[in-house]
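Input record (one chain):
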Amino acid sequence: MPLRLVDTAGIRETEDIVEKIGVERSRKALSQADLILFVLNNNEALTQEDYTLYEVVKNEDVIVIVNKMDLEQNIDINEVKDMIGDTPLIQTSMLKQEGIDELEIQIRDLFFGGEVQNQDMTYVSNSRHISLLKQARQTIQDAIDAAESGVPMDMVQIDLTRTWEI
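The corresponding structure, as predicted from the sequence alone:
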């Protein structure tokens, strides 16, 4: 299954024309997503921006991730739970590789348990397209392997960016 990850950091009101274009692209990406991973940091308290952005995505298929559990806790988990209601919540530490298995299971269950409704179904029969999809799958696997091996996330992002460029 092809996977495309889009970082939508920075969705906020702005007067800067370049930022406005980026915000619009992020909003478009959110509207087209089959699944949204809403990432919060354990070492940062919830902000009004977090609440506002969650309001935008709350009716979509969402998994909330509280990352950086290895750092001092400044986020109020009960406040997060109040904000997200029944939305799945996973606590992770990418640095210590904690919570990743739970996240993978949650994503797999949502996709293969039938809860995520694909917005469109595409069938690939062209051999060139199949080859490109296989290349993309390999670069994603490379990114997963790198992350599991403790490679810095900046380097993992290179593999993910390479997938996007295929």
